Fold each of these.
Amino acid sequence: MGSSIEIINTGNELLDGRIPNTNGQWIARRCSEKGLAVRRITVVGDRLDDVASAVREALDRGAELIIITGGLGPTPDDLTAEAVARALNRPLRLNEEALEMVRRFYEEKGQPMTPAREKMARLPEGAWPLRNPTGAAPGFLVQHGRARIVALPGVPEEMKAMFELHVGPILAEMAGERARYEAYFLAYGVRESDLAPFLEKLSRTNPDVYVKTHPRAEEGRYYLEIYVATIASSASEARRKMEHVIMALSEHISGLGGSMMPYRPE
Amino acid sequence: MGSSIEIINTGNELLDGRIPNTNGQWIARRCSEKGLAVRRITVVGDRLDDVASAVREALDRGAELIIITGGLGPTPDDLTAEAVARALNRPLRLNEEALEMVRRFYEEKGQPMTPAREKMARLPEGAWPLRNPTGAAPGFLVQHGRARIVALPGVPEEMKAMFELHVGPILAEMAGERARYEAYFLAYGVRESDLAPFLEKLSRTNPDVYVKTHPRAEEGRYYLEIYVATIASSASEARRKMEHVIMALSEHISGLGGSMMPYRPE
């Protein structure tokens, strides 16, 4: 699979179920659209040890790109920079460039620097600060061996703006021409367990094409959602790879007395 | 914190961002309502090695309850039972009680047993099958040292029904009389970084009460959402613990020229 990506989302509000992890999903989607596989998403709370071990474990698993969200603000439970520093065994340093970004943000609002604000400019040694176009807290990027660690804020609007600005180019470089191509189908009149043996054969003979069935029910009526995807360098290459898998699947379902039709989710 | 809970959600559809991890959030909410802390949520794909290591790592971190969702169905990428067996170093065995559950499910639909259906009854040695009141695949529970591992289906309706049936009593036993009590506020006219030093003092002097600020913006207007929570054995105990923290916070915000008012999210 080549390059491996892990996402770490921090925040007690994610661990106690107050809010859904939309940041994790959004980043995962962005990566997979480029044909890049996210290997794991980890959610930890605002605890120094837990964030630091999540980072260390991702490095130990050989992740090439680790994207962290949350914990960059001014409050005492914002501790991502300290946790990354600890995971990499580096000291935390006041970064002059980051300090300038923070200072400018508050200056425009006519507000002074304070120790809590200065804290947002303390980064792991050797980290590059990443400009935050909409909020106060800079993100940062650290290179550690082959791995790149990118820390972004948890506020979704800030996270997304900074992702496009700073992570987009990294993904483009990792992906090259690749992209993910996908198709959705609905199948009626056939159960997942009826399809299982055929799916096993299909995925063995077409390892490049990913097929996944999801059983659904609506008003008591059972049906399957079928997702077919592949990674290719062009739409025509993707069509070539997926076409006969889709045909074979459709014929097999007809043979079992069911029917399959394309659909667009949402 | 005493008892520690980890959630593992499996499924490629979560890792490529096709769907949000609603199962993880729902389970986390259920646990935290009982005053039980979820320490980590891990999302991995349908890969035997990845699911097995996620389980092993949670055990190594000393989790007492590990709740896994997904991967119990009949298709070849449903491999949670095998992954748990591998993590615990136990063989996978055809479980007679589980087999009976699966057989009965299909019998009611007038459908025969097949190898793909039988696969859903293959559980780690020593596991108890958990009845699935709405779907075909049984869940299972394994005790391993002090840790309990519960595997539930990924289909949300089945997962929720089985959670209430089989995990609810475990949580009740872990929680005793405890529950989480919480309150939400909005604060205007004050920035998060202005509050930071006071919050630090407040959380040091009131370690039992959790206070978290979330910066928000609406039509360009900046405000803070403030979440205050505690774990207590009764509503009156919770009020006693939280009341003076809320008062102190409100006074401090007024002193800074801002205002704070209660609100109900959603």
Note: Chain A touches chain B through 69 residues (CB under 8 Å).
Amino acid sequence: MTRTITLAQGNGGEENRALISGLFFRYLGNEILERAEDAAVLQTEKKMAMTTDSFTVSPIFFSGGDIGKLSVCGTCNDLAMMGAQPKYLTFAVMVEEGFETRKLEKIVRSIKKELAINGAKVVSGDTKVLPKGAIDGIMINTTGLGALSVEGVSVRNLEMGDAVVVSRDIGRHGAAIFAGREGIELESEIASDCASLWPMVEKVIANGVIPNAMRDATRGGLAAVLNEWVEASDVCIEIDEGSLPICEAVSGICELLGFEATALANEGTFVLAVRPENAERTLEVLRSFPGNEMAAVIGEVTDRYPKRVVLRSEWGTKRFMELPTGELLPRIC
Amino acid sequence: MTRTITLAQGNGGEENRALISGLFFRYLGNEILERAEDAAVLQTEKKMAMTTDSFTVSPIFFSGGDIGKLSVCGTCNDLAMMGAQPKYLTFAVMVEEGFETRKLEKIVRSIKKELAINGAKVVSGDTKVLPKGAIDGIMINTTGLGALSVEGVSVRNLEMGDAVVVSRDIGRHGAAIFAGREGIELESEIASDCASLWPMVEKVIANGVIPNAMRDATRGGLAAVLNEWVEASDVCIEIDEGSLPICEAVSGICELLGFEATALANEGTFVLAVRPENAERTLEVLRSFPGNEMAAVIGEVTDRYPKRVVLRSEWGTKRFMELPTGELLPRIC
């Protein structure tokens, strides 16, 4: 294969086929993909969940992951948040002419590794090579199809008294990308939280807890999730500021740059609304996964301020947690 | 809404939500999409076909279509070629900061129109806004899920004696894009063949013809399809050069620029391998659709030169039709 990607590798001809078989099929090949023609033929259940997302990140390789891992986690996590087991993924890769082939190979290896964690297969792909300058390196779109294992998990289902649980410390992905991009030197490196959530969701459900709602706190962070929930379920969520799990390095970045950790993106952190009697069991399950040691109950669903998220400080003061606006950290996921 | 797209409209916050509800939901809204959360919940059959494709075209609006129409046709056609009825589509739009909002609206209207022709629904979407210069205008990825209406349509199923049928005159999309891009003045404008094929496939099947193979002749054109078929089915295909339907304007562009019409991309033209006794009926069905008046039997499956496509000239000479290579018309679909 050539050292860098060429336009001819994206034109539907022989070079294109060679790239697909020599790189994508080599790592991601499976029976369905290999028998696929214009489309793959799948065995499905009666009810499936489907979602799509595009990924562009700068830098492409960051502490804790890369765009390949991100593109699997992002889409599989969206399925997992509906209580669906990720089964089939499609990949559409857009790569800039001149991109290093060994970097692309590294990305494909990350994809393979993360798919295995989810137990999902690639069933269809597309590769386009764009002329130098037409895109910035590489973009990946993934669409996922998952089998629903439970029903009714929904942003509309929050109930009075629900405990609001976060699966780990927040803000890592946004902070890691920002530090990587700006070359900020830190005493301890911040790794992105980028991770697949299905194994955690599966274990929570297997332990008899069916959350009323689950959501991964990606773009817009924890603040976006909670604001969406109060709106959709017409409730109030009261959060104890002191209970928010935030690691020191993320706190540091936030102070330095004037960000709120609650507005920073995450890529392997999710929020659950569970009945209060299930909160402890949920925490136990979550904490059994490495990285989730700081899983915490951060607040509760009330009816005090309908459609608002309230942040209660340790000194008893209250303020609203707003939906993030503006151009906060675009292009981080 | 702002006159041009801003970075803030892609960041997961309020502006992003406003763009999604004010533009995408306004035109593409349906019950499934409106109830979708991190993922949409779908009713599916036991066997579904799934495919993905990314679209980037310059110019974005061309004679006969635009990137919106193209992104529906491309993916729905891949499903149709497997004998699957397009049901559910996901859209991932990547748009450059500063893109005109009314152009985006025009594209979304094209999407709506073409979805209706297929009877398909958008069930999940994603919008990313990239900084000026990071992409060239707009790119769209669509993933489609379709319900198989017949089984066994496959590039591996060609049989000795099959008639090879093309649904209309070839090379229009490639020629139209090229003419549009280079500003070539022609006596008669060439419109792209860009069209949805499911209605034609549905009618062919309803008339009792189950093709052994079907393929839309997109990137790489007719030559790519036929070469893939002979390889996969281990047969020879002999094509009568004189029977190839090519309109005058496409012939003109090819002569001018030294292209073969058989290597030019199409976006609403497909090739069928049918038993010879079904050839006439297939032609009748195809010709009943406007634009397909030139549908023709162009050759047959033989065993003369295994894995090769042979072009027989009107003077009795023969040459091989090769798989296109190189950088022929990149970025046209």
Note: The first strand of chain A starts at residue 40 and ends at 43.
Amino acid sequence: MLKAAVLGAGYMGSAITYPLSDNGIETNLWGTWLDDDLISGSLDGLHPKLKKPLQDGVFPMYSKDLKRAVSGVDIIFIGVNSEGFIPVFKMLIDIIGETKDKNYYFFKLTKGLVNFNGKIVRASQAAREIFYKKFGSKDFLWTTVGGPVRALDLAHKTVSATMYGISEGICGEKIKEIISRLSTDYYRIFTSDDLTGVETCSTFKNIYSIAPGICDGLFREKKEGLYHNTVAFLFNQASIEISKVVSAAGGKKETAFNLAGVGDLHVTSVAGRNRRFGEMVGKGIDPDTAFKKMFEEGEYGEGYTALKLAMPWLSNFNINVKTELPLLDTLHNIIFKKAEPYDELTRFIKNLGS
Amino acid sequence: MLKAAVLGAGYMGSAITYPLSDNGIETNLWGTWLDDDLISGSLDGLHPKLKKPLQDGVFPMYSKDLKRAVSGVDIIFIGVNSEGFIPVFKMLIDIIGETKDKNYYFFKLTKGLVNFNGKIVRASQAAREIFYKKFGSKDFLWTTVGGPVRALDLAHKTVSATMYGISEGICGEKIKEIISRLSTDYYRIFTSDDLTGVETCSTFKNIYSIAPGICDGLFREKKEGLYHNTVAFLFNQASIEISKVVSAAGGKKETAFNLAGVGDLHVTSVAGRNRRFGEMVGKGIDPDTAFKKMFEEGEYGEGYTALKLAMPWLSNFNINVKTELPLLDTLHNIIFKKAEPYDELTRFIKNLGS
């Protein structure tokens, strides 16, 4: 019988416990030092974000209990936010480092880039380095979980399909066997051997979904809802730019035109936190203020952080942001260079087409 | 000075007159025998569908005045529905056949497949044959207009980008020169030499946008809005299947992952008539009844007709509908084989992934 730990008791970490429970997998749901209220709410009978009780076989645990949470587990889902990823993964490896004979399967729900020893990298790259330092040449059994899965909908068992990015080769085969035990009728899992592509898509869909949000903020009242064409244009441009970023980063272009790309961009653009962040910016709220306001409400705007880190990260690759990723450049100007959203967005659009 | 005629005074035909007018192009807006109310409303000062007056230099004309409408024009936009396309285009060619020394530029706004002498073909293929029969070896200066442009939003001058599919070679160069005189600040035109791809995308996005509509009908009340994951999955599946159809039909796969494909699918899925048709079906209304009900309200469900014609059309190509286009097959079962929408949709989803 498989046993799992989920690190991070926010939306996605908590939502993934539903298919795990329905598969009979005993699961410890560990909350970080930011999640104490979520754990106590869950212990009282209702997860405060999901507004649902957790299911049988799911055990909420406070931040002080990490060691207990991961004791004896086979599968570890990491669902903390990108800022907490490195500290939590280091703590995790220190603890499980004591059990060198055991194989762990890691599933990363966290989206975004991380600052690892002063260098901006994909989270799985940092994790791999931390892992090998402790475990030497042991198998790194890693999966990067992509979308399109909104946590709230998953917790309510809406039919969802998701793309898991796994490493190729023998490790991939082992991981696939485990993955086959995680799906349910309402949680369909597709796998891709383009881990780089899946992970890059997950980061950039958060960034690009700020754009339709900005449109909502700018146009919902002014245009009486009649700005679907603009949103569709930005959605399309975003999917094309994501495919270019994926290629430049060494992934497969087509990954961007599948579930982890176009699919995840769709759900995030319609209903995510990053869309909400964009809407605030479109309404004229200063981007830093908007990010802080959401943070104080317990909502982490991953797109904001990812956009900040994307620029130094992209400089590692052969891609010209201004000419090849004009929408990304536009978003960066609005969010971090304080360009006026309406002027900047219309300038961008008018520069394209003929 | 360019002069234009627009055939069909419904949503899109009427909406295109705004950028034409803003470019100083005198435009006759001709209504078919179904459009008399639209013409009289427009002459009275307000287009009944767009809820806006037409602009200066736009002249509404009744169905009896086709000859006057196309007299002396250079550009002809055809915006009738797919059912009216062949009869209207034949009438048009008969009339302009009298002026054999003149070059006409045709722009097809109509979406969908047509039944031409008992064979199902793309509308531009039928038009080409009708044209050559009258004009021999004269240049066929043809453009198929793609999306993503919702007529109502265009008429309100929301920033829109659109993909025009043109023929390659010398004709293409002549057409491009004309196209450069049609754009405005709010109507940005991109061109593609993949006419087949653009036209195929425009047909199939109407079909596939029925799917999120069915979800709305099935789940909006039951799932309290929490079915974004399902819609995103269907959107993604639709874009992948459209790319396969485009390839099979001789177009370029990447056209499906650009404005005429993913972009147009986006706007149509969110706000189109086909989505509304799907919603009625999802709510349990018989598909034929839903189509008729909309028709009686003056709304033509192009997706319904296109889906009916798609099956015989696809049999011309090397593609297996059941295995390669499972969502199309599912929609066909629901709409034309009276399969129960919930059962059929969930069966389809559960057959995918692992």
Note: Chain A touches chain B through 52 residues (CB under 8 Å).
